[in-house]
Structures are given as C-alpha cells and as structure tokens.
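To whoever picks this up:

The nightly regression suite flagged ATP synthase F(1) complex subunit delta, mitochondrial as changed. Nothing in the input moved, so I suspect the structure step. Input below, exactly as stored in the fixture:
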Amino acid sequence: MAAMRSMSRLLTSRALNTTIRRGYAEEMNFTFAAGNQVFYDGKSVKQVDVPSFSGSFGILPKHVPTLAVLKPGVVSVYEEDGGVKKIFVSSGTVTINEDSSVQILAEEAHPIENIDASAARELLTKSQSQLSSAANDQAKAEAEIAIEVSEALVKAAE
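Regenerated output under the current build:
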C-alpha cells in the first residue's frame, strides 16, 4: 500500500498527461540534416538506430524525450516501406521530443554506399601519422579525433 502512495505522488497530473500523450504516438516524424545534405525532412519512419557516446540506441515512436551527442558511426533509418537506409555521420546531435518527432543534425553525413573503403583506410593511415608527429596537445587532440572518425569510416565501408 505504501508503494502505491509513493507512486501516486510521483505521477503528478502533468507527468501523467505527458505519459499518456506520448503513449498514443504511432509514428515518428523524422528530420535528418547535415551541412552537406538534407536526408529526411519531416518524413514518417518506423525506427532509427544511432551511435552515441552513451552507447548506440534505437529510437521508436513513444521514445522518452532525449538529447544525445552522436559519435562517428552509422545511423540506420528503418522506413515505413520496409527499406533501411544507412548513413555515416562524423558527429552531431539527436533530439527526441515529447510529440515523437526526432531531429538529427550531423556535422557531416554520407550514405554508406558512397564511402570509398580504400580512401577511408588511406585517411586512417594519414591520421595515425599526424598523431605520431603531433607537436603539441592541440595537434594531438585533432589527430585523435581524425583517427576516431577514420576508424568509424573504415568500419562503415566494410
């Protein structure tokens, strides 16, 4: 009985209304853009999987509102028609709103079919070389970021 009273205090009318509203969402309004291209502009999709520094996670309609930072990797978009699009992102943010709308803003993004595996490996080698010859902390940090992105590019291209 004490647990029931505690639960009822937690569910204020505002929180309960938000939970009920979010519970009825059946579709997800999705926007995905980068500096180089707009991939989705308010399109309804089934699911989105994103790479994040807190761990990769999937987004479905009714997802709890969230703000996360994207790490270099592949965003998988599961479309209403059953198709799956995979897009590499270098970095960015994902925002999930109470109304089941989702926005991904990427620094740079490219469909994985456009990634040249040999060019990605070459970029990784160049980044590793820059790290070994870094003269100061800033150069070292920039090289480490380039290595992280390059490694994710190579993995996406495989």
